[in-house]
Write a structure and sequence with these properties.
The chain is mainly α. The protein contains three helices and no strands.
Length: 98
Amino acid sequence: MNERWSDVITLAVSEVTAMLREDADPTDVRLDFLAAAIANFKVQQIHAGSAKSDYSLYGKTRTDSENPAVNAARSLMRDYFQMCSDLITPQTFVFMAV
């Protein structure tokens, strides 16, 4: 494991573990994919926050919602949350889309 991102991965695994239903099989491989998708989303957010902003002709910067890598990571994470819906109970209510 890359030590640079080990804390992010550990956090994602902890989040998934905390969401597990009592009757869920903790060895279900879908949970591994969900943890990886959550970690990837967090890493993409970190990269987006530290990247140079893209300025347009009118001085606007590209927002987080316009970042293709963040959008792809968010979409993948949503897909895995859906795929694991029978295994997890999210601890908080989160709007995934508007």
